[in-house]
Amino acid sequence: MVLMGFVDTVDLFIFNIFLSSIYIGTWLPVFQVFSIIKKEKHRQTYGLELIASENFASRAVLEALGSCMNNKYSEGYPGQRYYGGTEHVDELERLCQQRALEAFGLNSEKWGVNVQPYSGSPANFAVYTAVVEPHGRIMGLDLPDGGHLTHGFMTEKKKISATSMFFESMPYKVNPETGYIDYDRLQENAKLFHPKLIIAGTSCYSRNIDYTRMKQIANENGAYLLADMAHISGLIAAGVVPSPFEHCDIVSTTTHKTLRGCRAGLIFYRKGVRSIDSKGKETMYNLESLINQAVFPGLQGGPHNHAIAGVAVALKQAMTPEFKAYQKQVLANCKALSNALIDHGYKIVTGGSDNHLILLDLRTKGTDGGRAEKIWRLVQLLVTRTLAQVYKSALRPSGLRFGSPALTSRGLVEEDFKKVAEFIHKGKLICANLSQKFQEQVAGIRAEVEAFAGQFPMPGLPEL
Ligand SMILES: *Cc1c(COP(=O)(O)O)cnc(C)c1O
Ligand SMILES: *[C@@H]1O[C@H](CO)[C@@H](O)[C@H](O)[C@H]1NC(C)=O
């Protein structure tokens, strides 16, 4: 059945090959992509996926993503398109917007949403384009401290992210002693730097953000507050971590991390009254037109309607009791993993986690994160080395990030995560003590990991 799609596209080739040759080797190139996908499916099924930004989308999401919605051009917005034949695409985009607001408990009089961003990075760039003039100032958590590239990342030598080339960026940091965001220093620096926009959002931070404090700092400087909830949007939709919406002007997100949809981005923006001055004069938000224009025609062309379809399906799933139970399990599993690793003698940055990820500090374990990550990779344990290692961070030169969302989607519970912690520890032991038996040891653990992982069901399309 599933093969049909592939055969469809190559049936002429097959026919020709069939006529001209019966040599089986000739057939193989025809199925090149199919065979690569099969290998990837195998890798995902028999490995332990601990990369905190990844997840396994449902079959329904993938089917919507693989649908005919891919074929349609629809530049513009519902009701104002530059193409004909968009009546169904309009209906889809409106439905997706409605579900996005509903999934996060938002009133459509106070909030609007743009569902067209291709992913999280373009969504952030669109926000800056909308509300910060060229070379205007932004402040985000520095990348080595757990922020994202698109929060204005640069080094002493080079502007790395386009968000630091086209906007002026001054990062804020975590306190190197505690691992928590240093809000006091952010407040001080914001008073000097006068940012137009402050970003509250992280890719590599295991604690809740104090949005109240961030909003207060933004207000002191007349800055907009953007929450980039890319990593935690699923947790927020389920109500298991604090929501940023009450305190922020704009909220951006990806849809494929804890939210479990396909790869895309969303931008939520406030509507209505922004502020009232001492004389009672109201200032209104004008974010809706600024953000919509920044996404299209500012930065993007035609929306990815197949992705919007996948996101709409994921958002409906995100409103079910099962999704809430899933997110609670994500948190419980993360705690179980954290505690098990602490029991094995590991040091966790901040001593634990409020969300779906932990940061392991390997400095005390006589090895660096890079080497450990390579060995874990060899035994099919997938984790993330923090970019802190590439861009030298004093705090986390050996930082490694572990997340629970993907394996929780496969049905693992707390007990299983204890087992995962054992595999992590076994891998680490080989790493600390490289012996001549290295190859054998790796093969042994890898076989155990594959047997363990293979027991758990895999969401998605059965064959692909
Ligand atoms: C993942 C992430 C993004 C970017 O998402 P892409 O889809 O990879 O472009 C943006 N911000 C944060 C905080 C992220 O974690
Ligand atoms: C390292 O390996 C050697 C030889 O196999 C062994 O004697 C020693 O106990 C090991 N050390 C650790 C810390 O595991």
Automatic annotation (TrEMBL):
Q: Where are the N6-(pyridoxal phosphate)lysine modifications?
A: 257
UniProt-listed InterPro entries: PyrdxlP-dep_Trfase, PyrdxlP-dep_Trfase_major, PyrdxlP-dep_Trfase_small, Ser_HO-MeTrfase, Ser_HO-MeTrfase-like, Ser_HO-MeTrfase_PLP_BS, SHMT-like_dom
Q: Domain (Serine hydroxymethyltransferase-like): give its ranges.
A: 32-424
Top EC class of this enzyme: transferase
An example GO BP is:
tetrahydrofolate interconversion
Q: Which pathway is recorded for this entry?
A: One-carbon metabolism; tetrahydrofolate interconversion
**Keyword set, alphabetical order:** Membrane, One-carbon metabolism, Pyridoxal phosphate, Transferase, Transmembrane, Transmembrane helix
User: Per the record, GO CC terms?
Assistant: mitochondrion; nucleus
Cofactors: pyridoxal 5'-phosphate
Q: Where are the transmembrane segments?
A: 12-34
What's one Pfam family here?
A: SHMT
Q: Which CDD domains match?
A: SHMT
Q: Which reaction does it catalyse?
A: (6R)-5,10-methylene-5,6,7,8-tetrahydrofolate + glycine + H2O = (6S)-5,6,7,8-tetrahydrofolate + L-serine
One MF term in GO for this entry?
Answer: glycine hydroxymethyltransferase activity
The catalytic activity of this protein is classed by the Enzyme Commission as 2.1.2.1
What is this protein's function? Answer: Interconversion of serine and glycine.
Check the record and name the HAMAP family matching this protein: SHMT
> Which family does the record claim for this protein?
Belongs to the SHMT family.
NCBIfam families listed in its UniProt record: PRK00011.1
Q: What is this protein called?
A: Serine hydroxymethyltransferase
